[in-house]
Amino acid sequence: MRDKKKTLYFFVYITLGVMCVFILRLWQLQILKGDYYREKSIKNRVRIIRLPAPRGIIYDRKGNALVKNTPYFIVSLIPELSEEVDVKGLSQLLGVSEEEIQERINKHDKHSLEPIRLKEGITFKEVSYIEARRSDFPGLIVETDITRTYPYKETAAHLIGYLSHPAGNRADMETKGFSRGTFIGQWGVEHLYDDKLRGQPGKKYIEVDALGRQLRTLKVLKPVKGEDIRLSIDLDTQIAAERAFKRRSGALLALDPNSGDILAMVSLPSFDPNIFIKGVTEKQWKRLLRNPGHPLLNRVFQSQYPPGSVFKIITAIAALQEGIITKNFKVNCTGEIQVGNWRFRCWKKGGHGIVNLRRAIVESCDVYFYEVGRMLGIDRIAKYAHAFGLGKPTGIRLVSEKRGLIPTTKWKLEKKGRPWYLGETFNASIGQGYVTVTPAQAAVLISALANGGKVFRPKLTLSEAPEIISRLPLKKEIIKFMNNALTGVIEDPKGTGWRARSDKVRIAGKTGTAQVISISDNMETARRYPKDHAWFVAFAPVEKPSIALSVFVEHGGHGGKSAAPIARTVIETYLRGNTNEDKGTEVIN
Predict the structure, then answer these.
(1) What is the pLDDT, as a whole number, of residue 178?
(2) How much is the pTM?
(3) Is residue 309 annotated as part of the catalytic site, yes or no?
(4) If 154 and its partner were Cys, which of 159, 245, 246, 270 is the partner (CB 3.0–4.6 Å)?
């Protein structure tokens, strides 16, 4: 009897022990880890679909859309069903190698809720084909995102920029607030205003079955469209400017001298931003990098060249403002000036004869400005060049800018370890030697002269308030004289910029021809490219300027021949299309 009781107690204790284990386990599952398993259960039956936010549209100043939002389709695979998928059949369906599909599956976290992307950027036709056969591949889904199309292709590409997937690992992207596969602005305005343009994605919660098929929609959080942006550029003017270059390399920046608005920005050769949407191939990338024209370089802000005779504007204003000369000061140009054993020649063989300041500007007499430079000295020339914004960035946030160079005696001593020589002043006074500027700085220079001495920071959008960087205390009579002389450059019979003459509007400007001393001595290259760069700066209408611009043509020869006609085309196009704006613009036919 006692043995029976012991056996009974043993089984009771065992039973109680098992029950305690079950109770503890249930307590652990339901109380300690209840939230964890509840969430996991929900995830197994609920799938979250990301709803892309329409990106804000970029418009020109007149409301013309410069970009378009377009659907972007992705074929993906639900991670938990990836082990059961027929990789061979999937490869045939998608036209993707088995190795690539398997590699994508192996790299993906199987516990992640994010689908495995197998193929991106498929067409509507491919979507239909895949949808018709999707039932054969459990877990296969077609996702929709939104990307860009750039209808004008190369036009204003350096300004607008492009979209692509963010670079870097997943953790870095999540830290920055980007989900996998998000399109972000990588360059230009798309990058600069990406936070505003991108918007806020939505979410759709759906209930799915064991095969990942949708049963019903549980909840929808609608996406928020990105903010639209209206740029200051004028599309018609931009297109006309790019066509006027006739496939030559160069740069152009047109500004509203009364606000700093960028009306047109050209950097050639350009590139088609559409190639970056699906991801640029290695072949395409190498082609861009190896292109001798450097299409990815923004020449407007990132290239620096000797300004040539455009710089004579600075030398003339400095001499007048400092009282070194008057407008009637005369020099006898015999075609050259000699200092010791060195001869500094004028561009016109035989010289211009006796010239005053106006004629020296109109006909671009080098000898005249050699003499004025001698009287001024390099440091006073540099003082006025800096005041007009040369030798420093314009302050635009679009790209990392080159500074250019305005030399001084101190600079020469510190950088070269040698004193400054008179011959170097001669070269600097006509925009040669060490002097370099960017096309953007040249545009700011002529814009400041057009508006009477206000140096504006160039701006990209109409919503930005105009920002004056500095005000030049120029005497009114000097501004009036310079505007008259620059008008003579175009209108006088001997003016170097006569090819910019228009029967629709009066234009003031200055030509420049910059010598290229580093060009290859290879005869084939020398035959293909003239050894000079062509410059032209201008503003119009003379009476009340509403556009100012710089034009630079690489290896274009004389500025009056190749750059001046481009300026005329751009000015006429802009004024013809903007006569109704309340800016006091002169009406032309």
Answers:
(1) 59
(2) 0.84
(3) yes
(4) 270
